[in-house]
């Protein structure tokens, strides 16, 4: 036979020391072709060179795996950072109140407190008692307290729109909060789904790589066994 020369090191060998192209997996053929272009079905390779390429292939598989895990880590850190930015964004939005908004909030919260009711009734009683007894001789608002009536209706008229303003503000705040919740929920849902996909992908990928490495190990075992015989 003319073709008893190793394709890689170009040295002559005996028939049983060579491996024909048909007995080599596609991935290893690709590796050989990368370094020594022109490999075809008729080519043969000596066992030493074949082992070198086989080891190279296994190293490549393991390194790919390492790269996969590093990529995954990077993506998780990236998404965690993005999540933080999302939360800061909405809290800033709720804090950007105008002067009028802040005053209406404060007036509404004071108007809805016991402090206001107690102060209001104290003034009312003082007013009525003052004008009935102490200023009996010269009251500035005699019975039936028309000025007090006017002031009370003014307070009621002003208080209603202020409370409504504050309620509108509260509504806007609630809406922003609800939107934020929705965004965070959506994001975590998407994240969980992509994580699922990543895990599935990793499992499948790792599984097929493990099977490839195992096939090579069985090949090596068979070689050793045939040598012992
Ligand atoms: Zn060789």
Give a quick set of tags describing it.
mainly alpha, rod-shaped, single chain, binds zinc ion
Helical content (DSSP H or I, runs of 4+): over 70%
**Which distinct ligands sit in these coordinates?**
zinc ion
Number of helices: 5
The tally of strands reads 2
**Class by SSE composition:** mainly alpha
Unreliable spans are none
How far apart are the termini? 27 Å
The biggest beta sheet reads: 2 strands, antiparallel
What is the residue-mean pLDDT, rounded to a whole number? 83
Organism: Leptospira bandrabouensis
InterPro entries: DUF1003
Pfam families: DUF1003
Protein name: DUF1003 domain-containing protein
Describe the overall structure.
This protein has 229 residues and is mainly alpha-helical. It has a domain at 97-211. Helix content is 77%, strand content 3%. It is built from five helices and two strands, in the order βαβαααα. The protein has helices at residues 26-35, 47-95, 99-111, 114-134, 146-228; strands at 18-20, 44-46. A two-stranded antiparallel sheet has the order 1-2. Helix 1 packs across helix 2 (47-95), helix 2 packs antiparallel against helix 5 and helix 3 packs across helix 5 (146-228). It starts with 17 loop residues before the first strand and ends with a helix. Zinc ion (ZN) binds at residues 6, 8-9, 11, 46, 48-49. Residues 6, 8-9, 11, 46, 48-49 line the site of zinc ion (ZN). Keywords: Coiled coil, Membrane, Transmembrane, Transmembrane helix. This is DUF1003 domain-containing protein. InterPro entries: DUF1003. It holds the Pfam family DUF1003. The chain crosses the membrane at residues 116-137, 143-165.
């Amino acid at each position: 036979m003319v073709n008893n020369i190793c394709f890689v090191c170009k040295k002559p060998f005996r028939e049983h020391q060579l491996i024909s192209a048909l007995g080599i997996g596609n991935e290893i053929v690709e590796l050989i072709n990368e370094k020594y272009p022109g490999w075809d079905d008729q080519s043969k390779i000596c066992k030493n060179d074949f082992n070198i390429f086989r080891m190279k292939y296994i190293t490549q598989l393991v390194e790919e795996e390492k790269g996969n895990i590093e990529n995954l880590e990077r993506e998780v850190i990236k998404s965690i950072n993005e999540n933080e930015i999302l939360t800061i964004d909405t809290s800033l939005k709720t804090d950007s109140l105008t002067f009028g908004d802040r005053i209406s909030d404060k007036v509404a919260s004071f108007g809805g407190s016991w402090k206001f009711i107690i102060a209001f009734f104290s003034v009312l009683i003082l007013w009525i008692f003052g004008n009935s007894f102490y200023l009996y001789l010269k009251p500035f608002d005699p019975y039936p307290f028309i000025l007090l009536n006017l002031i009370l209706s003014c307070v009621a008229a002003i208080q209603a729109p202020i409370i409504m303003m504050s309620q509108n503000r509260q509504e806007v705040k609630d809406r922003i909060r609800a939107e934020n919740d929705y965004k965070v929920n959506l994001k975590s849902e998407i994240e969980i789904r992509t994580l699922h996909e990543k895990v599935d992908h990793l499992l499948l990928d790792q599984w097929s790589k493990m099977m490839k490495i195992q096939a090579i190990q069985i090949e090596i075992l068979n070689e050793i066994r045939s040598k012992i015989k």
